[in-house]
User: Fold this.
Amino acid sequence: MIIRFLSFGKDSLADTFYSIGLVMRLCQSLSALELLHILVGIEENHFFPRFLQIMERIVILFVVITSQEEVQGKYIVCALFFLWTILDVVRYTYSMLSITGIYYPPLTWLNYTLWIPLYPLSIMAKAFAICVSLPYFESFGTYSTKLPFPFTFSIYFPYVLKMYLVMLFIGTYFIIKYLYSERKANLRESSIKKKRS
Assistant:
């Protein structure tokens, strides 16, 4: 994305999804394997916070962005992809090295600190993407449906997205609380390791 921006300038922002959307969908789909790693014990994390983080991204990417072609050309898609990529590169590098037993203090600090500015920005970008997509879901009726006779009610998808938006902010509180406690514990542990060395 950076190379495309340096090569094509502002024009590259609008077609980010068209150029790397497939790769991003593949990577975000594969990130669900993280949940399996936690369940099997390869990675030592709490399941529920990581599940929330992965599901947030999958819902935004596959339901909000991929399903609405008009949203795919918005600048917010580029911002989301950039934020996700920065967070993931640091997190996966740290996880890979820690699983192999390699300890690098600056990377540990970066892994447990970078989320402080970037995770809230990512949540705001997700909320903005939902708000940008609402008029398209309303006008096209995507995912809105009327159920047959025995139920006789309809599901208006923009209302579902608005409820999801509220749940996104509630879930953010729990994830930030978890990330902060994880940061506090791991940075304390890394300072103890540093003193022993």
About this structure: The chain has a mean pLDDT of 90. Residues 73 and 134 are 15 Å apart (CA to CA). The beta strands are 145-146, 154-155.
